[in-house]
Amino acid sequence: MPTKRDYYEVLGIERNANEEEVEGAFRKLAFKYHPDRNRNDGAEDKFKEINEAYEVLSNPDKRAAYDRFGHAGSQGAFGRGFEGFDFGGFGDIFDAFFGGTTATRQGPQRGADLQYRTTITFEEAAFGIEKEINISRTENCSICQGSGSQPNSQASQCPTCHGTGQVQRVQQSIFGRFTNIATCPQCHGEGRIITQPCSRCRGSGKEKQQRNIMVKIPAGIEDDSRIRLSHEGDAGTRGGPPGNLYLSVSVKEHEFFRRDGDNILYELPINFAQAALGTEVDIPTLDGNAKLKIPAGSQTGQVFQLKNKGIPHLYGSGRGAQLITILVSTPESLTKQQRQLFEELAKTLSTAKKKK
Question: Do residues 149 and 197 lie in contact, with contact meaning Cβ atoms separated by under 8 Å?
Fold first, then answer.
């Protein structure tokens, strides 16, 4: 069984400390190690040890016995020692003395925010779109207009708190007399009681509604972007403003375009002859087909650019470019004639001198 520490050492005071010094030391340590304020391991045991020391040293008779006989004397004067100490109500005292919650009259509260997700095409993301969405949200009751009372009736003052929304409880402790203020349990801080609840919302003042909302999605928006629609969320409480609606936008992948910032990437396969001799081809863009001239001797991986054929800059003017990457494809099968031609070409290429 571990040896108990000296009570004076526990409180950090001299043996000749007066009552004020004992109480001051206890209050300082109790504030530091109270389990509701200190979650570290060992804080609760430390707190119990501090209380045990204070229970003895704050009582003249128990302190005299302890000074004379040590812990054996305090056990005799204190009965079964700290094991018999009742913590009932001690937490309430600390809540009041060390910053417990003080209730306040509830005022207007903003409504809850809502989330909605929609999917658009690659082209819609590029050029923007106005889209209608359907949401379910909480609104003020259409019958009582949010009051919770049946029309032509009024709520009465709460008899428990007399309209304040708060109740007070006075407590007497070793630290003095404290007043604890809490939310009224009958009206829940409203200060009034609904005597004739609205037949539609049953006194809540709220009801669920389905609403169609037109949303303007700007040109140039990217995948997984979020748009805030102010005051389109749930209705507020006690006159508070509605919350916001946050629209998350997903963009579908395109069949052959990819996006890199405000540029559009496109891969163009061409054959050996086109790469060697050069050609002019039609390139698909967001605005329709466009002509692209490929010079002779083009190599695979070479990139060409079509200016102002990319994605419009979000909330700005101008557009990105469309970048075309050349992919020279090798035929997987050849006709007899094609093979002969390639063989003749191979003989010609093999005798060609390398450029210095």
Answer: yes
Rounded Cα gap, residues 137 and 114, in angstroms: 8
Distance CA 294, CA 309 (A): 18
Beta bridge mates, 165:
none
**Residue type at 70?**
G
Q: Residue 228: which of 242, 207, 211, 212 has the closest Cα? A: 242
- Single pTM value for the model: 0.60
Residue 96 binned pLDDT confidence (cut-offs 50, 70, 90): very low
CA 163 to each of CA 109, 157, 186: distance values in angstroms, whole numbers, following the listed order: 19, 5, 11
In angstroms, rounded to a whole number, what is the distance separating the alpha carbons of residues 176 and 57? Answer: 18
Which residue carries 């009552």 as its tokens?
19
pLDDT at 83: 41
Q: Compute the half-sphere exposure of residue 296: CA atoms within 13 Å on the CB side of its CA.
A: 1
Q: Note whether 324 and 305 are within 8 A (CB).
A: yes
Q: Express each pLDDT in 112-165 by its tens digit.
A: 999 999 999 999 999 999 999 999 999 999 999 888 889 888 888 899 888 888
Rounded to whole angstroms, the Cα distance separating 75 from 197 reads 62
Mean pLDDT of the 270-291 span: 93
Partners of 315 in the beta sheet? none
